[in-house]
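Batch manifest line 330
LIGAND: 4'-deoxy-4'-aminopyridoxal-5'-phosphate
JOB: complex structure
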Amino acid sequence: MQFHDSMISLVGNTPLVKLNSVTAGIQATVLAKVEYFNPGGSVKDRIAVRMIEAAEQSGALKPGGTIVEPTSGNTGVGLAIVAQQKGYKCIFVCPDKVSLDKINVLRAYGAEVVVCPTAVDPEHPDSYYNVSDRLVRETPGAWKPDQYSNPNNPRSHYETTGPELWEQTDGKITHFVAGVGTGGTISGTGKYLKEVSGGSVRVVGADPEGSVYSGGSGRPYLVEGVGEDFWPTAYDREVTDEIVAVSDKDSFQMTRRLAKEEGLLVGGSCGMAVVAALRVAEGLGPDDVVVVLLPDSGRGYLSKIFSDEWMAGHGFLEEAGPSARIGDVL
Ligand code: PMP
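JOB STATUS: finished
ARTIFACT:
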């Protein structure tokens, strides 16, 4: 019989897929690491497994305990699946701007979701930050993973994503490109690839224009899951060789092209990372192998990026900027 013991053992070992259309005119091989093949649909399943297992080993999370984390997105889904399989409860805290669909996904997996008002100061007792801290204090057996400072976030990528890429490319990878949110993916994967290649793999971060990683102040942008207005400790500045800033418009136009031309229905941070990867690949030769990591699926963005009305309403449907035109047949 061939079966997996539970969904947990399906986390990781995601495929690499060559990009064939958006790369027109580029000599280097550009490969996408497609993370929506994880059971929870995103790269965050990897960190959920590693953070929970480490907390079990250290005793921070005890049998029957409760995981409390301020998250509404992919990390919540990963934590909810692993927690459910291991007998833990989950309470997620999210701001009221989060779509009901996202909240219902977390509830479907059995998590409790506490929704907080966005329109209050961070110091207000009902704020997102204060509610999650209070829940940690008041819930018996509570443990907060805190993906922004938890070393097991980058470690999970050092132990899984990095070795997978080295093996899948037969050691031929020359460039690794990933979006930066908490920084866990790029720091852990990049550190491993640099070590194993003797420093020859170039690590490039993709960042929304306005975020701190590319020198911004945290100014708002619409791409979800990437960019920050502070420097998380999960991000290791030593690992990244270069940061490429990408606009919302370029990110979303590329996201739509990936669905239409490559059969990849992925999220907006994936389009952003591909724009950065193509900018890197443009100057490279036929022996170069650029790997770009695509964190999640496009299913969660159907009423935004994949809606013509939404795109037009933000002025994103107008003629593409120069970077989004990479690979277009002119
Ligand atoms: N894209 C999406 C959709 C995400 O949810 C995240 C995680 N915040 C990232 C990219 C960035 O990954 P990391 O936190 O590892 O930097």
